[in-house]
Amino acid sequence: MYGFRKPFTVAEYDGTMVGSIDFKTIVVSIQVLGYMLSKFIGIKIISEMPPKRRAIALLGLILFAEAALALFGILPRPWNAIGLFFNGLCLGMVFGLVLGFLEGRRLTEALVAGLCTSFILADGVTKSVGAWLLANGVREDWMPFTAGLIFLLPLCVCVGMLTRIPAPSEQDIAARSARETMTPHDRWSLFSRYALGLSVLVGIYLLITIIRSIRADFAAELWGDLGQQAAPSIFTRSEMWVAMGVMFVNGLSIYVRNNRLAFFLSLGICALGFVIVAVALIGQQTQSMGAFQFMVLIGFGLYLPYVAIHTTVFERLLAMTRERGNLGFLMYLADAFGYLGYVVIMFSRNLFAGRENFLDFFTTVCWIALAASLLALFIASLYFANHGRQPATASAVAERV
After folding, report:
1. Would you call 21 helix, strand, or coil by DSSP?
2. Do 384 and 376 touch, CB atoms closer than 8 A?
3. pLDDT per residue over 190-241, tens digit each?
4. Sign of dihedral through CA atoms 243, 247, 248, 250?
5. CA-CA distance, 396 to 320, in Å (whole number)?
6. Which residues contact 393 (CB under 8 A, 6 or more apart)?
7. What phi, psi does 22 have (nearest 5°)?
8. Which among 205, 175, 202 has a CA at the least distance from the CA of 191?
9. Which of 37, 113, 260, 305 could tie 251 with a disulfide, CB 3.0–4.6 Å?
């Protein structure tokens, strides 16, 4: 999926300006706007999607996304940005569909850690493909469509493989609870019972999403401001180290069988990630850390909590409370507001700032987000310590047995 979403971000679009705003900032913002709207739509669609329809929905969304990239190549600038809006609108629901194949299992954390690792690595790999296409003479406006063609056949093969995954076993259901499609009443009931705690977790995810997205979408600018040329291979090399570290730490959660303990350990992993980001920022600002080390360390620190929320926080919340629901609903609730925050940040920057040093902008946002996230994490820990216990009902006891 990242082969259809990310390659365009490696282009600089010849320094094209639309008024006082550079064209790249516009296209990144427009695609994220579509992606964000897709997340809000996905709260309903993903939580209600029957398992038998996931594969065909995946393929349909990808094909529409590739058609939107063709529109980006055909239309003149800046009107071709509309193609990236529809591209983001299609791709925003892909992750939730894939997640539906993997949740509610004793190995869910390892499986989703692998899935998240694939998109961390894919962020770098697909940018390297985009940079390689540009270096070989493909025009900037047609490069995203061309990159999508390269990834189309492998994606179809992988969707076919997903359909071969068996349903969760009885042992999986006993350990993690059954995951069912949700009605509007189910969604409201689950949220209202844990409204404060879920809102705080969504707030943390929102802040992480903002920083992670800035780092991902403006990686070339950040490398430049750090004084290092963004060669095609550097995107892959930096994200490979990030991906391996994040997969190792978050994947270990499968060895913690107690759902409540695993939930709070995952909050601890989030806190560790924030500390690592602070160390990276201090190292860069004191010039005691090189560009490559800074980008790897800050990526590792950001993706630790980002992936922990994907793999463990919501998965074990459902498992320890035995509430009716699915991971897709909780993730899309968080994703929707996460990308809404990123859209607000990007458009605010467009309105009130010029083409300033992107590293300074990124550092400022990081420090603000870190302080707010640590406070929110403390509140969430206190809340779920008192509200996250499994109800001692006859049905809950029967499920445990």
Report:
1. strand
2. no
3. 999 999 999 999 999 999 988 888 887 778 778 888 887 767 677 778 888 8
4. positive
5. 10
6. none
7. -75, 150
8. 202
9. 113
